[in-house]
Amino acid sequence: MPDLLELAGISASYGRIQALSNVSLQVPEGSIVALLGSNGAGKTTTLNTISRLVPVTSGNIWFDGKAIENRASHQVVEGGIVQVPEGREVFRDMSVRENLEMGAYRRKDTAAVRNDFERVLDYFPKIRERLHQRAGTLSGGEQQMLLIGRALMARPRLLLLDEPSLGLSPVLVQQIFGIIDRLNKDGLTILLVEQNAAVALTCSRYAYILENGEMALQGPSEQLRRDDSVRRTYLGH
Ligand SMILES: Nc1ncnc2c1ncn2[C@@H]1O[C@H](COP(=O)(O)OP(=O)(O)OP(=O)(O)O)[C@@H](O)[C@H]1O
Ligand SMILES: [Mg+2]
Fold this sequence. Notes:
By secondary structure, the protein is an alpha/beta fold. The chain contains 10 helices and 10 strands.
């Protein structure tokens, strides 16, 4: 499959602190690609450069064959790249339904939005039961599902997921990853940032490992799962 997203030699800095240097990666259309690394490695920064929330100092970002490194963030979203940010940021005082509708606020195709609303609720039956509940009262796992649902309401072609397993129990992690897998089988391309390497290497096809803002290692996920240094450093054995 052709690459839907390609980063070529991306560098980015916060003031004098260089957060990324010469980062390259590819996300083929229809795949799940994992981006791993420990705290502060630059994973979120990488997603933020793609979403155009952090400027790049050098390098290129290609999406669907077009250079996007100079686009504004809203143009990137309209082009089909939607990020689910790290941590839970639902609109706490709005209802669950209103939160989902916010995901589609730029769309004018009302009939398709209604269809997508139903489709999203099919992925998340727990959310369907809580449409009128205040979003701030959802459990942590339900909030994570709502965030993914809200992102889906924007009709992404590429979903950027930043640590969807953060703070969730093993059972909920399984549930979320079951849904991620289903979304991918239904055709969605996903770039998945995770610290939980075990689960990320199981659901992805290919993975990259960042260390101190540089790409340290990459390969097919199955191969990385069996790699001794990866096991020691990221899988805890
Ligand atoms: N807004 C910011 N201003 C200054 N430095 C920042 C900012 N955001 C991130 N950094 C720095 O950039 C580096 C990379 O941070 P980043 O958030 O991308 O890491 P991460 O891999 O997502 O880590 P984590 O797993 O903890 O979320 C860190 O050293 C961090 O302190
Ligand atoms: Mg992060």
